[in-house]
Amino acid sequence: MTAKKETHEFKTEVQQLLNLIINSLYSNKDIFLRELISNASDAIDKLRFKSQTDPEILGDDTEFKIRIVADSEKQTLEISDNGIGMTYDEVMENIGTIAKSGTAAFLEALEQSQKQETLTPELIGQFGVGFYSAFIAADKVTLITRAAGPEATATQWESAGDGSFTIEETTKDSRGTTVILNLKKTEPDEKNFTDEWVIRNIIKTYSDFVEYPVLMDVEKDEPIPEKEQVLDKDNNPVATTRKVITEDTLNSMKAIWAKDKKEVTDDEYKEFYKHISHDWNDPLTHIHLKLEGTTEYTMLLYIPSKAPFDMFQQDRKHGIHLYCKRVFIMDDCKELLPEYLRFVKGVVDAPDLNLNVSREILQQDRLVKNIRKNLVKKVLELFAGMEKETYENFYNEFGQVIKEGAHTDWENKDKIADLLRYKTTKSDDKLVSLQDYITNMKADQKEIYYITGDNLSTLINSPHLEQLKEKDYEVLLMTDPVDEWVTMALTEYKEKKFKSAEKGDLELDKVDDDKKDEYTTLFDYIKSNLEDKIKEVKPSSRLKDSVACLSGDDYDMSAYMEKILKASGQQAPEVKRVLELNVNHPVLSKIKALFEKDKDSQVLKDYSNLLLDMAIISEGGKLENPSQFSKMIGDLMSHAL
Ligand SMILES: Nc1ncnc2c1ncn2[C@@H]1O[C@H](COP(=O)(O)OP(=O)(O)OP(=O)(O)O)[C@@H](O)[C@H]1O
């Protein structure tokens, strides 16, 4: 810690983000106040949570509040709270130097979309710019903060948003944070953020339901009592009212989840969502229910319209805030919804919970387990009941996460299976449900066929599907890595088994036994040439036009799974695959003729390798020795031409 004033550079990503905010949100200025009030409210939430186990921490400052002071002459606006505050180190960590994890990736995505000219405030909103939004309205921001606790010292942070900030120790009488904005000059037709009615309006619109009073000193006309009135020469009062300064509460503080559904407007639902989620986009939909009976609770849950940028990051927060009789207990309540529903935001108010509940106790709590079970049920029902178009939008954003549930939530596996959608060989790029797939199955088709891989067009053209296409059987095209786990977990749907198009025996057309026998010695020979690379060479029942493909046994790992494990740096067990050859292809009968003429021909060895390479390429795999492959093709072409 240090007493002197230090100047630091903003982390590059933070400065980039700041410039982006200032440049793209100038027409959306009001939201800076919402963000700062949300931060103040979060800081009080945190303190309140801490005070449940450490009541001393509040001292005699027990009335939580947020205060706004506007000075129209100096053109400054102050937002103060008596929340948890920050230590010097926390200010260093939270503001300016360390960018949130994922910022760089997010900025890269933004830059990409900027190129496509689709940069919108909504896109930035997804990231949640929080504190930095102050610079939309201010050309200098000063933050003075003191952490809760008797020993704490105060810290002052200041910046003009131009690449650097100063930080120093200071003094502050009480705990909490004050943010002082030196407002930018406004044009005559622009809003002045020191104007009482401008502030009132913004707070009413965005922060009405904040649980703590947002207070401001306002000037009011008060009637002058008769005996205090000054009279003029005609005995008439000079004035009947006088200006007084009184403290006014600008928000209603009504917990909207506790209200009757009919009393809440659509806009109120939306604004509350934005307050708790820090997302600027409207939610896709919400569910507001009061459950009575043995497990009593109220829930107001929202489904975002866009996936958050950090959906797949380890340190992302969950979206549920837990309350007990409208008193905030905790945010980021992971215990109430499983991981695969981590994108759901909202509030759960459980009146029977113990207010002093800790996270550790929550995990064991029977009531919490019951609530969780109910929430999952309601949320899955909400998904299932969505209109087709809304559901497709939802699935495009969150389908990948929902799939995680197929192998983690055994209890709801069937319901999750109902929610899955896939493109297929027949769907023309549209998503199809498993139910639709089954309805459209051919009369003689017994199983649900699928193939996994990372590239849709490689999959759709895969040689593994030739016979299936010939039979006019539909095949699910699974291109998410998580689909590998889905297929492991879901072995069947509505009594129809899942069957990989690249594994096991497809049991379509049996290869003629005589023909099989004709090829046995040649196949043994090819196998001996490729001994260390494959486990078997066999006639294929999958292929129609292609010469070769690779397959696995029913319980072998798929090629895609092996690729995923390798890409994530994990040790994939070495699984040799089966080289399947099309005995009806003219190339094979020619190789066979050559083999019967001269078993020692060097070219037969080359052809064995070539057949394997062709099989690898056709499924989008990587050759071990691509230059040898192209040399062999070159030789073949020069002979053929
Ligand atoms: N009034 C405050 N009191 C205490 N800590 C604060 C306050 N304002 C900001 N902070 C701290 O600074 C951090 C960064 O704030 P910022 O508003 O940039 O992001 P955030 O609130 O974490 O998330 P979001 O970007 O979604 O708003 C907060 O997480 C909090 O720890």
Automatic annotation (TrEMBL):
<feature type="binding site">
    <location>
        <begin position="126"/>
        <end position="131"/>
    </location>
    <ligand>
        <name>ATP</name>
    </ligand>
</feature>
<dbReference type="InterPro" id="IPR019805">
    <property type="entry name" value="Heat_shock_protein_90_CS"/>
</dbReference>
<feature type="region of interest" description="A; substrate-binding">
    <location>
        <begin position="1"/>
        <end position="359"/>
    </location>
</feature>
<dbReference type="GO" id="GO:0016887">
    <property type="term" value="F:ATP hydrolysis activity"/>
</dbReference>
<feature type="binding site">
    <location>
        <position position="81"/>
    </location>
    <ligand>
        <name>ATP</name>
    </ligand>
</feature>
<keyword id="KW-0067">ATP-binding</keyword>
<feature type="binding site">
    <location>
        <position position="86"/>
    </location>
    <ligand>
        <name>ATP</name>
    </ligand>
</feature>
<keyword id="KW-0963">Cytoplasm</keyword>
<feature type="binding site">
    <location>
        <begin position="101"/>
        <end position="102"/>
    </location>
    <ligand>
        <name>ATP</name>
    </ligand>
</feature>
<comment type="function">
    <text>Molecular chaperone. Has ATPase activity.</text>
</comment>
<feature type="region of interest" description="C">
    <location>
        <begin position="564"/>
        <end position="641"/>
    </location>
</feature>
<protein>
    <recommendedName>
        <fullName>Chaperone protein HtpG</fullName>
    </recommendedName>
</protein>
<dbReference type="GO" id="GO:0140662">
    <property type="term" value="F:ATP-dependent protein folding chaperone"/>
</dbReference>
<comment type="similarity">
    <text>Belongs to the heat shock protein 90 family.</text>
</comment>
<dbReference type="InterPro" id="IPR037196">
    <property type="entry name" value="HSP90_C"/>
</dbReference>
<dbReference type="InterPro" id="IPR036890">
    <property type="entry name" value="HATPase_C_sf"/>
</dbReference>
<dbReference type="InterPro" id="IPR001404">
    <property type="entry name" value="Hsp90_fam"/>
</dbReference>
<feature type="binding site">
    <location>
        <position position="359"/>
    </location>
    <ligand>
        <name>ATP</name>
    </ligand>
</feature>
<feature type="binding site">
    <location>
        <position position="35"/>
    </location>
    <ligand>
        <name>ATP</name>
    </ligand>
</feature>
<dbReference type="InterPro" id="IPR020568">
    <property type="entry name" value="Ribosomal_Su5_D2-typ_SF"/>
</dbReference>
<feature type="binding site">
    <location>
        <position position="94"/>
    </location>
    <ligand>
        <name>ATP</name>
    </ligand>
</feature>
<dbReference type="Pfam" id="PF00183">
    <property type="entry name" value="HSP90"/>
</dbReference>
<keyword id="KW-0346">Stress response</keyword>
<keyword id="KW-0547">Nucleotide-binding</keyword>
<dbReference type="GO" id="GO:0051082">
    <property type="term" value="F:unfolded protein binding"/>
</dbReference>
<keyword id="KW-0143">Chaperone</keyword>
<dbReference type="InterPro" id="IPR003594">
    <property type="entry name" value="HATPase_dom"/>
</dbReference>
<feature type="binding site">
    <location>
        <position position="39"/>
    </location>
    <ligand>
        <name>ATP</name>
    </ligand>
</feature>
<feature type="binding site">
    <location>
        <position position="177"/>
    </location>
    <ligand>
        <name>ATP</name>
    </ligand>
</feature>
<feature type="domain" description="Histidine kinase/HSP90-like ATPase">
    <location>
        <begin position="28"/>
        <end position="187"/>
    </location>
</feature>
<dbReference type="GO" id="GO:0005524">
    <property type="term" value="F:ATP binding"/>
</dbReference>
<feature type="binding site">
    <location>
        <position position="100"/>
    </location>
    <ligand>
        <name>ATP</name>
    </ligand>
</feature>
<dbReference type="Pfam" id="PF13589">
    <property type="entry name" value="HATPase_c_3"/>
</dbReference>
<dbReference type="InterPro" id="IPR020575">
    <property type="entry name" value="Hsp90_N"/>
</dbReference>
<dbReference type="GO" id="GO:0005737">
    <property type="term" value="C:cytoplasm"/>
</dbReference>
<comment type="subunit">
    <text>Homodimer.</text>
</comment>
